[in-house]
Amino acid sequence: MSNSGLLTAQGVWITGLTETGSHPLDVHVAGIRTRSDAAFRAVYAAMADDLLSFAFGMLNDRKTSEDVVQQAFVELVRNADKIRGDGRSLRAWLYKSVRFGCLDEYRRRSRRPEVPHETLPDAVVETDPLADHLDPMLEAALGQLSKRHRSAVILRHVVGLSPDEIAKVMGSTRRATYAVLSRAETKLRDLLDGVS
After folding, report:
1. 166 in helix, strand or coil?
2. In angstroms, what is the C-alpha Rg of the chain?
């Protein structure tokens, strides 16, 4: 088995878990604390795509999602000596940073007017990081969830975090996370049932 994840019985690949229960980022935490370039590069290589998928799921804008992920790594460099715990804690810290970046972007968007699409020049269409993961109906339904519910669902079912890890990312208790996930999944099911 690869040390970058596990394949569940349902055929879902969960990144970040190994058969022994250790986390692949464990070996880099000490290097992050001492500001090792090699450790930062390794963590970026291991996490950037998953963080980008999460950010894109929240923002539905590739360029802004890339900016949010880059900012999370800038914050990691700035706060490296404050990182505590193991690889799971580092992973949760990164997701939390990206989540806060997405919420900041929501606030920025609400303060500035949106430019009508017909006034924008044609651009090359890039593929989005979730294209292989989500069908259009699911993506539309996710867009109708609250930010908190969308975060929880994407972290659980797209990224593959455990409810305990989601609680760390969202700054809530395990019990509150289970409640948010339950409400979000129910709402998502209702939205999808209304489509079919």
Report:
1. helix
2. 17
Residue-level pLDDT at 9: 42
Alpha carbon of residue 18 to chain centroid: 20
Q: How far apart are CA 18 and CA 90, in angstroms?
A: 16
Structure tokens at 91: 């992973």
Provide the total of helices (H) and of strands (E) in the chain, helices listed first. 8, 2
User: Rounded CA gap, 82 and 94, in Å?
Assistant: 13
Strand partners, 15: 5
Per-residue pLDDT tens over the stretch 58-105: 898 899 999 999 999 999 999 998 888 899 999 999 999 999 999 999
Higher pLDDT, 28 or 131: 28
Q: Which residues contact 54 (CB under 8 A, 6 or more apart)?
A: 95, 98, 99, 154, 155, 158, 159
pTM of the predicted structure, to 2 decimals:
0.65
Q: Any idea how long the chain is? A: 196
Could you give the domains of the chain? 1-129 (1.10.1740.10), 134-196 (1.10.10.10)
- Give the Cβ contact number of residue 167 at 10 Å: 20
